[in-house]
Amino acid sequence: MIRRDKVHAITCTGANLEEDIFNLVAHDHYVRIPKYRELTTAEEEKLLKRHLNRVTDTCIPEEEAIRRIEGAMIEEWNAADNNGQRYFPHEFFYRIIRKKKLEKFYQIDPRDSWVVAACEKNLPIFVPGWEDSTLGNIFASYCITGEIKNVHTVRTGIEYMMVLAEWYEQTATKSPVGFFQIGGGIAGDFTICVVPMMRQDLQKKNIPLWSYFCQISDSTTSYGSYSGAVPNEKITWEKLAPETPKFIIESDATIVAPLIFAYILGE
What we know:
Elements: E1 10-11, H1 14-26, E2 31-32, H2 41-49, E3 52-55, E4 58-61, H3 62-82, H4 89-98, H5 114-121, E5 125-126, H6 134-145, H7 157-172, E6 179-182, H8 186-192, H9 194-201, E7 213-217, E8 246-250, H10 253-264
Parallel strand pairs: 1-5, 6-7, 7-8
Antiparallel strand pairs: 2-4, 3-4
Helix pairs in contact: 1-3, 3-4, 3-6
C-alpha cells in the first residue's frame, strides 16, 4: 500500500513503530506461545528470566531486538544531542535505516517492513505518546543518567500535533483526506482531533472535515469508550459531517485489513 502510493501519512504508537524494526532485525529469535492464555505466573516468570517480553502470543527477544536497536539509536541520540539537533522519533529511525546501521542484522526481507517502505517514500509519520514505548523509556533513562543533556533532543507529541496541523492544512485543502483507523487508542484519537483543533481553537475557516472515516475495531461499541464509539459521535466534535461516509467494521484487523488492502490494490 505504501509503495503503491495508497498511503499518504501514518499515525501510530511508539510500539507499532519500533516493533516493526524489532521484527526486521530479530525475527528468527521471536518465540511463539500458542497457548498463552494457559500460562501460569511461574511460566511467565521463566519467560522474564529468558529475557522474552510477551505481547499476547509472541515474545520479543530483549537482546536481539531491543538492545540491538538501542545500540544504534543511542549513537544517533548522542550525535543529535551533542550537535544541538532535534528530531522526531520516526526521523531517528529513518536516519538509522538510511545509514544502513542495521542492515547486517536483517532477518526478513526489508520489503516486508512498513517502516522501511515509509522511509523510502519519506512518508510523514506521527507518533503520539512515544514516551510510552520501550525506546521512549530507554531515552528517559539516558536523560536521567545525564548521558543525554537535552530531554527535547527527541521532539515531543505537542510538536507532532503542530506538524500534523500544517500537513493536514496543506494536503486537505488541495485534495480530500480520509481517515482509515485500525484498532483504537491514542494513535487514532490524537490524529482525528487535528481538524476540530484547527477549526475551533485556531478559528481557521478553510479547514475541511475528514472526507471519510473507516475503523476496524474489536472494541465493544459504547459511548463510554472512545475506541468503541460509533462514528456518528464524531459529528458532535466537528471531526465528521452528517453526510461523511462512515464505516465501522467489528472484526479482527489482522484478517480484515489485508482483505481491504488487496481489494484496493486490485489483487
